[in-house]
Each structure stands twice: as structure tokens, then as C-alpha cells.
Amino acid sequence: MASIKLNSGYDMPQVGFGLWKVPNDVCAEVVYNAIKTGYRLFDGACDYGNEVECGQGVARAIKEGIVKREELFIVSKLWNTFHDGDRVEPIVKKQLADWGLDYFDLYLIHFPVALEYVDPSVRYPPGWHYDGKSEIRPSKATIQETWTAMESLVEKGLAKSIGISNFQAQLIYDLLRYAKIRPATLQIEHHPYLVQQELLNLAKREGIAVTAYSSFGPASFEEFKMKHAANLTSLIEDKTIKAIAAKYNKTPGQVLLRWASQRGLAIIPKSNSPARMKENFESSNFDLSEEDINTISSFDRGLRFNQPSNYFPTELLWIFG
């Protein structure tokens, strides 16, 4: 398994397993099977609502001697309602308890969005709305306040590395001005419809590793019925992607994943199917030609799907403008 050396000194597996939208009733089994398949990086989050079950899958694999804790790379994320400095450590400890772990290998700020605190005893995960229905209440916490609290997680051994997710260039430059511990990774939506090459160049210059999510483009977001995705051709079904896949005797999914990993990004595909798990895991055992990489990159349309204003009414436009 290829790995990426982080600026924190740790090695992060380049191919991981994403846990977004893995149903609770099968999550423990899915994680267990993914470990058996060979996955060692698992990308979770408070907001996914399945961390207890993820931990159960990990515990089973460890108990059966399939893997040791130190061989795993567990990632989780800080949700928006816990950005206030004094809220960070308590929620991390809760998340660790849910996983049954003593530390996270990597802990990320999920969005550069601070919302008013919701007590986990009231609703967990809290989601976007303060009342669980429609009310959006911003918090006054700054990114600097949140990042300072994130840095303390490393100092206390609760996280080995810390990073950011869904940040764009301006916020990254601002964060780097005051960060005592630089973000080890940047996790972003990344697929041929959203290449974000300038952002990738920035991260490379600053020594920040990049993890790509939603590598198959609109496929993960079909249920949200977004207008700007309505007439898009599925990347998996695109005739050009299919032709490239046939050329290498691979699947379109493997080609899309290899396009990202061959360009130096980490990838975190997910599937509940053991066969598809294996297929995704083995997506790095071939190389695309430079011509084919450029052809896939030319699909770029700057189309972003994981943006709050794509899910909700205009009340959320203040978040991303």
C-alpha cells in the first residue's frame, strides 16, 4: 500500500475507505470487511452519525487478530457546532469514546463554518440546524480560536495530526499566518468536474497533503436532486472514461480513482459491496498515460456539489458567499 508522508512526520495510506452514508445497521460489518480487504485508513466524522458502529467493526477486527490498532489510520472531523475553543476537546473525547480509541491519527475541521453549540445530550449528531428543523445560528468562533484548540489536541495526545476540510485558498493563507502546527492535510471535493488545480498547487507549495472525496463526481449527490447536476453525464457512464477503462482492462471507477492518486492525492472511496471494495482498493496497481490524465482533467467545469447552499435555501449563502 502506497503512503503519503505528512508534514507531521506520519505516513498516511494513500487509499482509504470513506464512511459517509454507510448505514448504521451494516456499518460495523462494512468496516470489518474493509479491514479484511486490506484498507487501513478510515475516514469518519461526527456528522456521519455512525462512529459507534465504525468502532465496533474496528474492535472486531482487532480482537480477531486481523489488524493491530497501530496499523490503522483513523480520521475523524470536528462538526460546525463545536468550533468554540472550549467545545473542541470535550467533543473529541466523546468521538474517541464512540470509536473505542485513545487517539485519532488525523482530526480535521469539517467545514470552515462555526454554528452555535448544540449539546450532544439534546441531539447528536446535531446537523446544520440549531432546532433540528430550519433555524441556522452562527457562532462567533473564529478559525483561529478553533485551530488553537485543535493544536492542543496534538499536545495532549488526542490526535497525532490535524488538518482541514472544505477550505479554499484565502482561508488557508490566513490560517498559516498564526498556525503553530501547520495543517497536515486538506480534504476537498475533487473529481474530473471539479479539478481545483490552483488549490492543489497551493497545497503542494505549502507542504499540505490533499485527500480527494467524491471521486466519482455527482454519483454521491444524486439523492439531493441538485439542479446543476440534473443533466450531467455520470462519470462512471461517460463514454470517454469507459474507453480509457477498456484500454487498461479496468473499470471506469478504477480509472477515476487512479486519475486522482497518480496525481499525488489520497483517495477515500466507499462501497458496501465486498467486490467493489476490492476493486477500489486495487485501483492503484496500474498507471494512466499522461495523455489520458490530461483528457480526464479536461472534463473540469468547476462544478461543486458538497456546498451547503446546494442543499438548503438562501439562508445559508452567508457561509460561502
UniProtKB/TrEMBL annotation:
Superkingdom classification of source: Eukaryota
Site (Lowers pKa of active site Tyr): 77
GO biological process assignments: D-xylose catabolic process
List of residues binding substrate: 110
Active site: 48
Gene3D superfamilies: NADP-dependent oxidoreductase domain
CDD domains with a match to the protein in the record: AKR_AKR2D1 (cd19115)
GO terms assigned for molecular function: D-xylose reductase (NADPH) activity
Stretches assigned to the NADP-dependent oxidoreductase domain: 16-300
Pathway annotation from the record: Carbohydrate metabolism; D-xylose degradation
Swiss-Prot/TrEMBL keywords: Carbohydrate metabolism, NAD, NADP, Oxidoreductase, Xylose metabolism
Keyword NAD: yes
Family the UniProt entry places it in: Belongs to the aldo/keto reductase family.
Protein name as catalogued: Aldo/keto reductase-like protein
Organism of origin: Parathielavia appendiculata
